[in-house]
From TrEMBL:
<dbReference type="GO" id="GO:0016132">
    <property type="term" value="P:brassinosteroid biosynthetic process"/>
</dbReference>
<keyword id="KW-0812">Transmembrane</keyword>
<feature type="transmembrane region" description="Helical">
    <location>
        <begin position="6"/>
        <end position="22"/>
    </location>
</feature>
<dbReference type="GO" id="GO:0020037">
    <property type="term" value="F:heme binding"/>
</dbReference>
<keyword id="KW-0408">Iron</keyword>
<keyword id="KW-0560">Oxidoreductase</keyword>
<feature type="binding site" description="axial binding residue">
    <location>
        <position position="418"/>
    </location>
    <ligand>
        <name>heme</name>
    </ligand>
</feature>
<comment type="pathway">
    <text>Plant hormone biosynthesis; brassinosteroid biosynthesis.</text>
</comment>
<dbReference type="InterPro" id="IPR001128">
    <property type="entry name" value="Cyt_P450"/>
</dbReference>
<keyword id="KW-0349">Heme</keyword>
<dbReference type="Pfam" id="PF00067">
    <property type="entry name" value="p450"/>
</dbReference>
<dbReference type="GO" id="GO:0005506">
    <property type="term" value="F:iron ion binding"/>
</dbReference>
<dbReference type="GO" id="GO:0004497">
    <property type="term" value="F:monooxygenase activity"/>
</dbReference>
<dbReference type="InterPro" id="IPR036396">
    <property type="entry name" value="Cyt_P450_sf"/>
</dbReference>
<dbReference type="GO" id="GO:0016705">
    <property type="term" value="F:oxidoreductase activity, acting on paired donors, with incorporation or reduction of molecular oxygen"/>
</dbReference>
<protein>
    <recommendedName>
        <fullName>Cytochrome P450 90A1</fullName>
    </recommendedName>
</protein>
<keyword id="KW-1133">Transmembrane helix</keyword>
Amino acid sequence: MAFLLHYLFITAIISAVSFLLHRSSRHRRLRLPPGNLGLPLVGETLQLIAAYKTENPEPFIDERVRRYGSIFTTHVFGEPTVFSAEPETNRFILQNEGKLFECSYPGSISNLLGKHSLLLMKGSLHKKMHSLTMSFANSSIIKDHLLVDIDRLIRLNLDSWTDRVFLMEEAKKITFELTVKQLMSYDPGEWSESLRKEYLLVIEGFFTVPLPLFSTTYRRAIKARTKVAEALSLIVRERRKEYERGAKKNDMLAALLAGDDKFSDEQIVDFLVALLVAGYETTSTIMTLAVKFLTETPLALAQLKEEHEGIRAKKSESEALQWSDYKSMPFTQCVVNETLRVANIISGVFRRAMTDINIKGYTIPKGWRVFASFRAVHLDHNQFKDARTFNPWRWQSNSGISCPGHVFTPFGGGPRLCPGYELARVELSVFLHHLVTRFSWEPAEEDKLVFFPTTRTQKRYPINVRRRNRSFS
Ligand code: HEM
């Protein structure tokens, strides 16, 4: 609540200015997408937050689409914003990144990420760094190099499970350890765990007002960001010395140190921070929600078990998964797709119009914010039959349904397409493999999904676990 009050105070000032702008004669001459700017100052922010704090936030977009069509104007988080709920417009927005639109993060997030973060980079530097990140997480690197650590670290974590675990917590620990290993070849230990604790504080700061005077959470986040940066700088300095002595490692940090650009320590640290943020919440939430949805859909869980028992039956208990095993998990990929579709961790992306943009007979004025809603498309009954039901079978190749690339976009698209999309899929698949072949479980308590400020279950999804006898070998 305190956050909300602080937030409203700041947005009131920003809103007053944007409201005046909106009423200016220039905007009255333009044909803006229809919609409602809500109350003076707060716009429709409170309605949006109230909707996304429930298990069913859909009415917020559904009602506006019904009234105004799939491109509409609203006023949220301090600014008039054009929402797109249709695949073609979303594609147009994503593909025109850097030409007609540019990415736009709230001040709290950009300050805490650091100015050299990939998420904030623009122009040719962004292009170059995006492809460097892609090359570090592509299929052949995962196959030859990362898969073995993914398998080992997931097993190691699952070995420690007894009786009751909070799945969301465990999943976060796993994805953090995996990312630290992939970025800088550090195995989990006290160092990574204390870094993770600081990290959690940084992420909490993302959803506050970026004014240290008003928000304790934001003050704490800045302190934590400094500690994270110090810890990472130490590693970067050590590794730079090693590199100059001719030592070579096969990780993202090595690629940054070896590049022709001679990045400073600060640039490298910001880059690493962004990658840790990008892969952490997203992958761990999908891990948790895949298990939640499977638990609620016993037929799908049974089919998934069968697939993984078949793979494990050909191996000894301790044998690591190979790339060929990953490639023989078709139903797992259906489960991953369906979880991404229904849960929509990144419900859409914000962009800012770099110039007046004409689209579908309307004009989005220069400087206005737009939101390409993936969630609205993924849960649209015109795009997916029974769109709001978890149904992994819809993705089976024999289902007779094909889904165009611009309709299913959990990883975004265009120049900012998620560089970790394959890595996330592999991590999720390996996790599901070890989970279903080694454990059975049931929810320890009823737990609900909420979508604001991030997608999560309210109680961190507690489950009671039992180890399985290996009867399928
Ligand atoms: C299920 C897991 C994941 C989901 C749903 C996801 C989703 C997304 C989406 C939608 C974007 C586009 C943002 C935009 O257009 O503004 C994005 C960007 C990004 N993702 Fe992921 N992601 C996931 C996992 C990962 C992982 C494991 C990594 C680690 C390598 C990663 C790294 C990034 C980075 C660095 C960007 C920024 C790209 C840029 O701005 O150029 N993501 N992700």
